[in-house]
Amino acid sequence: MSRSSELGAHRVVAELDPRNTASAALCRRLGMRLKAHFVENEFFTGEWSDLRVFAIVGRDWMAAR
Prior knowledge:
With about 60 residues, the chain is of the alpha+beta class. The chain has three helices and three strands.
């Protein structure tokens, strides 16, 4: 039994700052797809930053394993 099915997760989502290229690369290696890019989404530590959303659904996760 896989960890995904143990948790009963249908979708896993990662939200990250696009400047964090290592996290984006990890999401892609895990089979996650870029679902959204929000420009100037959050005001954080004195500046506006973008947000990228990666996601994968359970059946795609299982197919990649």
